[in-house]
Design a protein that fits this description.
By secondary structure, the chain is of the alpha+beta class. The protein has helices at 2-25, 30-41, 95-119, 138-142, 145-148, 159-168, 190-201, 239-244, and strands at 70-74, 77-81, 123-127, 133-137, 182-187, 206-213, 230-236, 251-257. A hairpin with a 5-residue loop joins strand 3 (123-127) and strand 4.
């Protein structure tokens, strides 16, 4: 019974999303803008199962406690962080360490999202006074500290979802978890989305590793989800992330058009 109920909800969402997509591609100028985005992303498109892994990176003194394990608290759960260095470049096997890296990278990712959103007419999600979700231009939010406090920044992926994904998708391979630290940027038009991707690709601190683009209007719809988005896996290599030991941690930014 529960499965039939879920299936009906999924079918309902699929019909809704297909209708949204149909309106987008029939809006003047949007198809060509999305094609330009697709051409820009084409060198980075690859299946989720290939190419990008979380790998061991070097840690310095901040994690060492006289050679012992140091407790790390994350979402009221106690994890143990190995003292000293991990093996550089080797696929990551410690979920505890991966969660710590994701938490440490989060403020750097959010700062990049603020920059990208401001440069591309991005929109920030927040809850209005009436309790409803709304999207406000980044230029307005960043100019108003009170609005900035209301922005709904995405949390780290929940531990129950991590376990589901490891079991169902990755055969318990921790190194394939590349979306623990994540963020979303919403745009009104394909032109703004293109400006965001262009800015992202030219940011000296950002290294794009992989993209998944379900907004290509020329792709076979049979191989795409009805919900359209662009997912970008990347690393942020700045002085701050190097100092924190997270410059090689893979994060994810999702790009959406407002109707979705």
């Amino acid at each position: 019974y529960q499965w039939r109920k879920i299936k009906k909800l999924m079918e309902k969402d699929k019909v809704l999303n297909l209708g949204i997509w149909d309106k987008i591609i029939h809006k003047e100028g949007e198809v060509e803008g999305l094609r330009q985005v697709a051409r820009l992303l084409q060198p980075y498109n690859m299946p989720t199962s290939k190419g990008v892994l979380q790998r061991g990176i070097e840690f310095h003194g901040s994690f060492e406690t006289e050679g012992r394990l140091q407790p790390l608290w994350w979402r009221n759960l106690s994890f143990q962080v190995p003292a000293g260095n991990t093996s550089i470049g080797v696929p990551q096997t410690s979920l505890s360490l991966l969660l710590h890296q994701a938490k440490s990278l989060q403020p750097f990712l959010f700062e990049k999202v603020r920059e990208l959103s401001l440069a591309s007419n991005g929109l920030f999600p927040m809850t209005g006074d009436d309790g409803r979700s709304q999207f406000i231009p980044a230029s307005e939010v960043l100019a108003n500290p009170q609005l900035l406090e209301k922005v709904k920044w995405p949390p780290l992926k929940r531990i129950d979802r991590i376990r589901q994904k490891l079991h169902r998708c990755y055969n318990s391979d921790v190194s394939k978890l590349c979306d623990l630290c994540r963020a979303t940027i919403v745009h009104r038009t394909a032109a703004d989305l293109l400006a965001c991707m262009d800015w992202l690709m030219n940011d000296e601190d950002i290294h794009v590793l992989r993209t998944k683009n379900s907004m290509d209007p020329d792709s076979d719809p049979q191989h795409l989800s009805a919900f359209r988005q662009i997912s970008v896996n990347l690393m942020i290599s700045s002085e701050g992330t190097k100092r924190m030991g997270v410059s090689m941690h893979v994060a994810e930014i999702q790009l959406l058009l407002l109707p979705f």
